[in-house]
Write a structure and sequence with these properties.
By secondary structure, this protein is of the alpha/beta class. It has 12 helices and 12 strands. The structure holds zinc ion (ZN) (2 copies).
Amino acid sequence: MAAKNNGTYIATAAAVLLVPIVLFLHTLSPSPLPLPKPYGGPLPSATPPKEIAVYSVIAGVNHRVEAFGYRGGSLFKRRDFSMVGALVKHPKGDLLIDTGFGRHIDEQFRTLPFRVRAITFYSLWRPAADQLRDIGYDPKSLHAILLTHSHWDHVSGLPDFSGVPVWVTAQEHEFIKKSGDMDFCRLFTGIRYEEYGFEGGPYLGFPASHDVYGDGSIVVVPAFGHTPGSVIIFVTLSNGTRYAFVGDLVWQLEGITDREERPWVTRRDADTNAEANRENLLRMIALKERMPELIIVPAHDMRGFAALPKLSNLSNSTAASP
Ligand SMILES: [Zn+2]
Ligand SMILES: [Zn+2]
């Protein structure tokens, strides 16, 4: 009888331990979103200046595994997540989209909550401001830094760009003021945030838009969800090449190509409103169905950034902003 009781006890204990593990592993399994209808609206015209160009500025990496980035990814395959900025050269003023890791990432990192530090292993390569200096570009000559959103890994370098305005939506500015624990902005002083609105109409399936220079070359759309004021930045070159810098809408390109969201545990921790993020993800997937040539660049997908021209392609003679 005692042996039977012991057996029942062991079986119950095993079930109590195993069920949560099985359920957790299930949240990592493939679960593609339904394929939306291709975007059916108009394609906006753009008259980008011939000088407009985009360059990747990879400041470092987070060492992750695939499963961290999207459902269906392997728990055993390593994948480095890029920590980046992108320089957009435009005759009316150059912009830096996000900064990636900055010079003070080590001390900033120590302020993050334990739950983030415990699973984050990073390497700082070279901060964006130093990479710009390396090619003879004065970081202060940037017209502005345009944030996709204000999470720590996108704003770490802001203090390295003293005096350069930081463009944010009103919603993201409020989010910054509330100073969450995933945000470094609370550590910074003297940053000049400038808010912008969405005065333009619908754009490529998104409900509103902000055309930065009025020529259709740099157009920002609201994509709130990951944070309350997240945006997507479309950049169109004079040869018609069109990029979508989607920030953390997805962490890896499989979010678009395989329609796989972040796993539940990371959605829960990282997204302010996971449902709203999903809605915007479906908009991007619908757009990609219509425009296969659109180059989607998630902030943390190394493959997307590796495919962009490198900053070193800018020669010293042409680096200075007009
Ligand atoms: Zn983020
Ligand atoms: Zn991020």
